[in-house]
Amino acid sequence: MEFKNLIPNICEGFPFEKGDSVLLNFWGDNEDLKILDSIAESLSKKGVIPLKHHCSKFFFDNIVINLIHGNIEFPQNYFDYLDSFKSVVDIFMYTPSFPNGISEEDKPKFKKHLAKLFNTLTDDKKYYIQLTVPTKINASNAGLEYNIYNSIICNALAVDFPKLKKNCQKRVENLKDKNAIEIFTGKKYCLKLNIDQRKWYIDDGCGDFPPGEISIAPIEEDSNGDLLVSIVNFKGRIYKDVLMVFKHGKLVECSVKELNQFLNSLPENYRILCEFGIGLNPQVKELTGFTPVDEKALGTYHIGLGMNHLSGGKNNCPFHMDFVFYCDNVVFS
Question: What CATH number should be reported for the domain whose range is 3-133?
Fold first, then answer.
């Protein structure tokens, strides 16, 4: 299965309506532009107006870095133009990173430019959608062989979108009046979450691609108990049956030494239990340790640590890490 053949189905999953203007922000090089053009063409067939913004690696590695080295900033009207779009699709052929050979002096300026660009693309949007294309560089960053990575991404993107949207909406409708969650894992562990007055969010094509989950931000100070996580990929190494202990909303202990040391080295608000999610994509057949897809698998659940201010919570921090698990039972009350 090839990504380019799935583009019409992907565009069917987008929430845009006839007459909408959408910014397609493309992180790819010139040889990749056929992907961008194909997405734009598919959207235009639906009556959506696609505007293109090209962020090639060459442009950032050379033009942007030259301007930064010369202490020249991009004008505000450039960011104002990008900010004028209320719907954005961020398309990643590669993940933005420091250019090779960048000086230590220029790194903070480069980070500042990327941060301003990212905030402009994401803040105060009706829809901000991330679409990661299964490329070899993205597979390498995910710690997976390309053939495996391409297969799990493309399978997940081949989902029946109308059916997925219907199932997500139905699940939220059944849960919207619930105030608490009890998660039972490993036959003897229980984690209790308070979700009183918090709103469920649906990712059925209006958030991160591949899609297929509903999620909620628990009350930040009121998650308590133990959770057994099925599989964790940490720094390219797979750990199974990882026990995590939470008190007053924060992770206080983890059974994997390396992961425990890493998480305990972070600021306290990075360790807040910020999300509970339910996977609903039937096209994700197995867990691989690649969380962005694993968390969408039908029959799985996941929690997140860190940032949730964009999804109904109060914790604003530059960190988010998810953990996917199966469980013996989940009780909503």
Answer: 3.40.1830.10
